[in-house]
Design brief:
The protein has about 375 residues and is α+β, with helices and mostly antiparallel strands. It has a domain at about 5-100 and about 160-195: Orthogonal Bundle (Helicase, Ruva Protein, domain 3), CATH 1.10.8.350. Helix content is about 55%, strand content about 5%. A 4-stranded antiparallel β-sheet has the order 4-3-6-5. Strand 5 (about 315-320) and strand 6 form a beta hairpin. Helix 2 (about 20-50) runs antiparallel to helix 5 (about 90-95) and helix 8 runs parallel beside helix 13. The structure holds calcium ion. The site of calcium ion has 8 residues, from loops.
């Protein structure tokens, strides 16, 4: 992509000619290109010598620590990292310039469309008994479990094609900004493979190393994934039962409250307090306050169960092509953000869940 085209795209997305945005894009693009060039030089030298990651001093230190602290066999790890390869596309994806975060009207329709809803109703039907079992056991609605798998991987269609060892090695050793996090995930991945008696060279996943229908990172697999079909193995890539049970367990362990609301539409009354209220929004969300405080501040148009009144709740703004929508967000909405820390993600999951429930009722009433 040349710089001019990058700038034009930025302008089109922002819908205005904004030189500042363009300058930021250019800087970010340069950083991105620098990453790619750096990665390309690494891959070239490594490919020429055919030695993968194993001989780099930082990788040797990483191996030494695993041998010392986790009782790994040194030769086994050296053999793994000899075959691990840097993935420039992973670095490019991580370094993609974020100039303007997507708006709701751009983000939502990717997931809230007829084909994703129909495929979700079909996935629900095909896994009905397991979803009902998970809903009973964990208190998480079946629709929410299906929606998460739908948003993450289109119900298992797009689980990622990178070798996890390549993606995580690239990010642990050639992406300094998040090296600590991805080194920990790389260690978790190697521990997981040892626990499951699987070669680390086999599993495939996203560019960030997330695995299977629900796109769990290795640390989350070790902490929250469960064997839900009782075959003695956790397999999130090939076993929908394990994916369903694991998503339900993850949300339950992060505090999902059965039967409680997620997000409800509200209105913000015009008046002298509205400016102060709107000033509370940062990135489309506000700090949490009591319902009584929000009412005092001019929030109206909603009805919630009385037993929730004491719990602090947030406000959410979603951009539409017309006026912004405002929502009240409850504990369960924040639990969804523990899966992916994004207001757009949590809102898309819940709205897809609603659409799936309606789609399933329609399918049954035919
Ligand atoms: Ca299993």
């Amino acid at each position: 992509m040349n710089r001019l085209r990058a700038c034009n795209e930025v302008r089109a997305r922002a819908g205005r000619r904004n030189l500042l945005s363009c300058a930021i894009a250019l800087v970010a693009l340069c950083a991105c290109l620098a990453h790619i060039v750096q990665a390309q030089s690494i891959v070239n030298s490594a490919t020429v010598r055919g030695e993968g990651y194993a001989r780099r001093p930082d990788v040797q230190a990483f191996i030494d620590a695993l041998v010392r602290n986790d009782a790994f066999d040194s030769r086994t790890l050296v053999r793994v990292f000899e075959q691990a390869r840097v993935q420039p596309k992973v670095l490019a994806a991580m370094s993609r310039p974020i100039v303007a975060p997507p708006k709701w009207y751009e983000y939502g329709p990717q997931f809230l469309n007829a084909s994703r809803i129909d495929a979700g109703v079909a996935f629900w039907q095909a896994n009905d008994a397991t979803l009902a079992r998970a809903q009973d056991a964990f208190g998480v609605p079946a629709a929410v479990i299906v929606a998460i798998i739908g948003v993450e991987t289109y119900y298992g269609r797009n689980t990622g094609s990178y070798r996890v060892i390549d993606a995580l090695s690239t990010l642990a050793f050639d992406y300094p900004r998040r090296a600590e996090y991805f080194s920990a995930e790389l260690r978790n991945f190697l521990l997981l493979c040892r626990e499951q008696d699987v070669s680390p060279l086999l599993p495939r996943g996203s560019f960030a190393g997330a695995v299977g229908l629900p796109q769990f990172m290795p640390g989350s697999i070790r902490e929250y994934a469960i064997d839900y079909d009782g075959d003695g193995r956790i397999d999130l890539a090939n076993d929908p039962d394990d994916a369903i049970g694991s998503v339900a367990n993850y949300l339950a362990r992060h505090g999902w409250e059965p039967g409680q609301p997620v997000m409800e539409p509200v209105r913000i009354e015009e008046g002298e307090r509205v400016e102060a209220l709107l000033a509370l929004f940062d990135g489309g969300v506000t700090p949490r306050r009591s319902v009584a405080e929000w009412i005092d501040n001019g929030v109206t148009g909603f009805a919630i169960p009385g037993d929730l009144a004491a719990d602090p709740v947030g406000l959410l703004m979603l951009e539409t092509s017309a006026a912004p929508e405002y929502w009240m967000t409850f504990n369960n909405w924040f639990v969804l953000t523990r899966y992916n820390r994004s207001r757009l993600y949590a809102s898309a999951v819940w709205q897809l869940a609603q659409a799936l429930s309606e789609g399933r009722e329609t399918a049954f009433s035919r």
